[in-house]
Amino acid sequence: MNWQRRLFDLVQPQRGRMLAAFGLSLLASLASIGLMAVSGHFIASMALVGAGAAAINYYTPAALVRLFAILRTGGRYAERLFGHNATLSILARLRGWLFGRLIPLAPAALAEQRGAQLLSRLRADIDTLEQAYLGLLLPSAVAACSTVVVVIVSLFWSGWFALLLLPVLLFAGAWLPWRLQARHADDAAQIDRDAENLRAAWADALAGRAELMVWGMEDALDARMETLSAQREAARARAQRGLARADALLTACSGIALSLALLIGVLGMQQRTLEGPGLAMLAMLALAAFEPLLPLPLAWSRLAAIKAAALRVFELADRTPAVSDPVVPVALPKQNDLRLREVWMRHAEHGEWALRGVNLDLAAGTRLALVGPSGAGKSTLAHLLGRLYPYQGSVTMGGVDLDRVCADDVRARIAIVEQTPYLFDASLRDNLRIAAPDADDAALARVLAVAQLEGFLHNLPHGLDTWVGANGVTLSGGEMRRLAIARALLVDAPLLVLDEPSEGLDALTAAALYKALADETRGRSVLLITHRLGGIATLVDEVAVMEHGRIVARHDLHAAVVAPTKLPAGAAISP
Ligand SMILES: Nc1ncnc2c1ncn2[C@@H]1O[C@H](COP(=O)(O)OP(=O)(O)OP(=O)(O)O)[C@@H](O)[C@H]1O
Question: Is 0.90 topped by the overall pTM?
Answer without folding.
Answer: no
